[in-house]
Amino acid sequence: MAASTVKSILIIRMTNDSPIFSGLDRSVFDDANPSPYADGLERGVSEELVRRISTDKNEPEWMLAMRLESLRIFLDKPMPSWGPDLSALDLDNIIYYARPGTQETDNWDEVPAEIRSVYDRLGIPEAERRMLAGVGAQYESEMVYHNLKEKWEEKGVIFLDMDNALQEHPDLVKKYFMQCVPALDHKFAALHGAVWSGGTFLYVPAGVHIADPLQAYFRMNAKNMGQFEHTLIVVEEEAVAHYIEGCSAPKYGSQGLHAGLVEIFAKPGSKVRYSSVENWSRDTYNLNTKRAIVERDATMEWIGGNMGSGTTMLYPCSVLVGEGARCDHMAIAFANEGQWQDTGAKVLHMAPHTSSKVVSKSISKGGGCSVYRGMLKIAPHAHDCIANVECDALLLDERSRTDTIPDIQIRNNDVTIAHEATVGKLSEEDIFYLTSRGIPREEAKAMIVNAFIEPVVRLLPLEYAVEMNRLIELEMEGSVG
Predict the structure, then answer these.
(1) What is the mean pLDDT of the chain?
(2) Cα dihedral 248, 249, 253, 257 sign
(3) Which carries the bigger pLDDT value, residue 448 or residue 363?
(4) Phi-psi category of 241—alpha, beta or left, where left has phi over 0 and alpha has psi -120 to 50?
(5) The pLDDT value given to residue 301
(6) pLDDT reading at 246 higher than 60
(7) Rounded distance, CA 223 to CA 252, Å?
(8) Which residues touch 82 (CB under 8 Å, ≥6 apart)?
(9) Domain residue ranges in the chain
(10) How far apart, in Å, are the Cα atoms of 348 and each of 304, 330, 379?
(11) What Å distances lie between residue 194 and 55, 86, 197, 264, CA to CA?
(12) What is the C-alpha separation between 384 and 353, in angstroms, rounded?
């Protein structure tokens, strides 16, 4: 066993305890609250529903027009014919809009007790007190809590839910909304544009360095629910921000749909880190879209963990439009029985002297399927670019599957490109090493898996790294190796 592996395993074992996440178990995510507000709600999407959403939110005419055009595109576009099989997804049985019947507040004590208890179990209020600059909490289609620490408000930082941002900063929202990911992009971007509700608006003025992360947590609760939050982040010149998203939904044995959208604008010289831990239930189709436009000398970092959902299609994208722009994509996907995790990264080098790094880690168990699907594109005028892609897969049994599907398009010869992919199994030698020191076999295997994903997990704040490790342990329970 390599010394670095031993060190990683020991560090994980010593730190895998937290006052926030120490009691985390599957019931925290899979148990649902009663949802009488969803009784009798319209299923499927229609022009009438789109107009009602816009009216409820008192939106300007331009937003309604954008919603209706998105609906038209959605109805015209076919379902994706590549990647995982979506033929079983019944879009006519999804509830696209549900209001839980509570008003947004900046005081946790004013959130209804049954909703507050969900976030208490997830550790969100405690995390806010200990380490966050601001928090948003969305339940079904609407935010129920949103707060930004005063010292960042005084520096001009705007951290609002999208509905309030549209009311308070309409010109700023209009300038950027769905300019990074247009409705024409694909069917589920168009669906999102028609029925989006809630989400986060983060604006960081030039030169402001937010020292602590900001977080939003999105929770679906009702059966057959769909969630379509919109995250819009603008980080101005030489500013720095770290934003974290968490997601979960209970298990019903009946389909749910998540088709959120994330747009990030990294202005010249800025640094943006976007971290997410997506842990939807097996019932959920997670068809999310995330993209960033990265300008001159800016840095965009994507840190992600995907598990839980039955089917995932997620490929965060960085468009490097400014000279000297850089991006890092670091991701983990865990596919267990009945899951298809189709994830990856897209990087478009559209300017000279740009650089990118992609590190993808996947784990397959119990017959699950993990797929890395990536795109790397170098434009004809983008000389002196550097790009590196690493895909590492871990198979925990003979029934599971992993695939690596890279699409590399190089239109300039004056570049340095590297791509490598590896597939491995749990080492019996490593397991023996740990069990010989009194560690139970199941725990030893979970520790080795945690060491495998450690290069990505260590980039998360400590409390969220602990959460990720605990979620991996929950997925590993009952593994036969």
Answers:
(1) 89
(2) negative
(3) 363
(4) beta
(5) 98
(6) yes
(7) 6
(8) none
(9) 3-476
(10) 19, 16, 8
(11) 13, 20, 9, 20
(12) 5
Instruction: Please give the Cα distance from 460 to 437 (Å, whole number).
Output: 29
- Give the span between the Cα atoms of 201 and 196, in whole angstroms: 13
Pairs from 77-85 (Cβ < 8 Å, separation ≥ 24): 77/186, 77/187, 77/190, 78/187, 79/187, 80/186, 80/187, 80/313, 83/313, 83/342, 83/371, 83/373, 84/311, 84/312, 84/313, 84/340, 84/342, 84/371, 85/340
User: Mind listing the pLDDT tens digit for each residue in 122-131?
Assistant: 777 777 777 7
| Contact (Cβ atoms closer than 8 angstroms) between residue 345 and residue 360 | yes
CA atoms within 13 A on the CB side of 276: 28
What is the rounded CA–CA span in Å between residue 275 and residue 72? 32
User: Within a 13 Å sphere around the CA of 290, how many CA atoms are in the beta-carbon half?
Assistant: 24
Query: Encoding tokens for residue 180?
Result: 């990074």
Alpha-carbon distance values, 360 to 180, 405, 440 (Å):
24, 12, 29
pTM value is 0.91
**Which residue bears the tokens 């019996």?**
428
Task: Identify the CA nearest to 135 among candidates 219, 244, 215.
Answer: 215
Token couple for 93: 């049985």
What's residue 129's pLDDT? Answer: 73
pLDDT in tens, 38-85: 788 889 999 999 999 999 999 999 999 999 999 999 999 999 989 999
Backbone angles phi, psi at 443, to 5 degrees: -65, -35
